[in-house]
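hiii so um. not sure if this is the right channel but i have a protein structure encoded as tokens and i wanna go backwards to a sequence. like what aa goes where. can anyone help
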């Protein structure tokens, strides 16, 4: 499994159809809140794929204003799996 993180040894061509990709980062965030009203929990994992030799174009999104975000399944007609809102990005 360590080959997936090696820019020279990784091979995801069977999954993506592209050569020259490797996993540059895996990020996992978890949240749990327990109080007298009940329990609330959420978790998300992201795998960041990067090209081995070519720079990709990307857009910069500055989260300095309220916004909505969602995770959807494009294989299931765009079924929304998770929806959230950031009302005040300056608060934590």
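sure thing!! here u go:
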């Amino acid at each position: 499994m360590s080959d997936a993180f090696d820019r020279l040894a990784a091979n995801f061509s069977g999954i993506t159809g592209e050569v020259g990709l490797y996993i540059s980062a895996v990020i996992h965030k978890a949240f749990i809140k327990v109080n007298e009203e009940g329990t609330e929990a959420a978790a998300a994992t992201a795998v960041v794929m990067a090209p081995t030799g070519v720079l990709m174009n990307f857009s910069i999104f500055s989260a300095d204003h309220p916004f909505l975000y969602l995770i959807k399944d494009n294989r299931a007609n765009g079924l929304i799996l998770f929806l959230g809102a950031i009302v005040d990005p300056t608060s934590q």
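oh and The chain has a mean pLDDT of 83.
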